[in-house]
Amino acid sequence: MSRGFVSLVGAGPGDPGLLTLAGRDRLANADVVIYDRLVNPEILEHVRQGAELVFAGKSPAGHTLTQEQINDLLVQKAREGKRVVRLKGGDPFVFGRGGEEGLALAAAGVAFEVVPGVTSAVAVPAYAGVPVTHRGLASSFAVVTGHEDDSKQEESVDWERLATAVDTLVVLMGGSALASTASRLIAAGRDPETPAISVQWGTTADQRSVAAPLREIASRVRAAGLGTPLLTVIGEVGRLRESLSWFESLPLFGKTVLVTRTREQSSALSRLLRAQGARAVELPTIELVPLDDNEAWAAARALGLGDYTWCLFTSANGVEQFWRAVVGVGWDARVFKCLVAAIGRATAEALRSHSIVPDLVATESTSEGLLEALVEWAKRSGVPAMQSLQGARFLYPRAADARDVLAEGLRAQGATVDEVLLYEARVPGVPHRAALDIIRSGRVDAVTFASSSSVRNLAAMLGPDLQQLRTATVACIGPVTAATARELGFEVSVEPAEQSIAALVEALCEHYRRAGP
Ligand code: SAH
Fold first, then answer.
1. Active site (annotated) includes residue 379
2. pLDDT single digits (tens) 180-215
3. Is residue 72 flagged as an active site residue?
4. Segment 386-410 mean pLDDT
5. Among this protein's residues, is 386 annotated catalytic?
6. To bridge 476 with a disulfide, which of 231, 421, 481, 506 should be the other Cys (CB 3.0-4.6 Å)?
7. Is the CB of 4 under 6 A from ligand 1?
8. Tell me, what DSSP letter sits at residue 18?
9. Does residue 178's CB lie within 6 angstroms of at least one atom of ligand 1?
10. Which distant-in-sequence residues (6+ apart) come within 8 Å of 353 by Cβ?
11. Residue 138: helix, strand or coil by DSSP?
């Protein structure tokens, strides 16, 4: 049996991108992960499939597991020979009770390590535009707990001495005691006009902050209704916030944006939206169900035998599904002996990711656009036998419900088109509850559509609840999608010039930049 081992890992302050590489590595290799309430659920996606997940979360209201029970659990799991990760918000050794857990492990003779995390004490002020030190304004900072619990001697803070000894004070866990913390500091000589900034859910899309002079901060936080987790940074450095507030100035900051792609495709779009400050809510409206594998396999083989002039792809999904079929019959990239055409950039990207460089990418990403591009290509090819599409043979792997304008158009030009119905795009069986609740409560600010079927399926999934999205900003990837959205009564206000996910996000950002905050 292997020797058990415990990693005390810091998950960072909330933004899932602030997990360290070492932290991600430990999660990917863990047998057991024991995590806290403040750990962003997205971070748990790095956990290896099949690993045991234990929620040790402490809520302000009650303790799920006592500290002693957590210590015992760590020792017990390690003694079973497991690789254990104890995952904590921020840094494990900053008010994280990581020290206590380390001591328990040491006492029990269990091997352990500490993987530090990005502490909220520094990162949350940074996301609020406040550097904890700054030349000429602050050359020292202290991180203290504002938690008032006189029964815990070790947590009592000497406010008297601290008030004027340190330039910047970062107060953690101080929500309810903020008023008394502020008055103690003022009583001990801190200037009541000192800038103070309280930040709730810092580094996440739920970040909210309030700035006020120290004498007023508690009442302003209460009036704004800020809740936990909350920290307060106090000091002259707070004056820099106006110029340095980069995160709260992001174009999509505070906006709730609905992502309606397939589950597999959602994460790339969500990541781009979150990078612009948005709260991305995923409600997959499309589920890809492979159709007849025999047909796909036969097509893959036929392609490998070099019977075709062209192989056409009209979506990135089509590329992925066809590739699955190719690999499924034991073929590889050598299957592509013919010319390859892609309807647009996203489809071309999908091909390139399999090292297939398309010979033709339509500039106008519609079936009509691709048809026209193929006709043009033939004319210009310089090969007499190829100058018309007469007699050309096309393999067209596609979704069962795609528009067949392309196949019909090619046939009209005298070409032979073998359509392979690879997959069907269906409405998912069980929609995501949490996402539905957000829609029903009218909290969605913007909706993104990357295909016509996502528009139609969303309408089918929501029924009368679609009303809730009528006032939302609608962003469509291209003209065909936008036309479908309009048919269903949406007012489309964002449509990028180029059909790609990155351009869609950029156009949405531009929309909000123009509209102002
Ligand atoms: N080990 C953690 C701190 C744990 S104590 C760290 O290094 O960050 C929990 C306190 O941290 C909360 O009460 C709050 O004051 C602060 N905190 C943690 N995450 C926060 C966040 N995203 N926004 C604001 N405060 C946060």
1. no
2. 999 999 999 999 999 999 999 999 999 999 999 999
3. no
4. 84
5. no
6. 481
7. no
8. G
9. no
10. none
11. strand
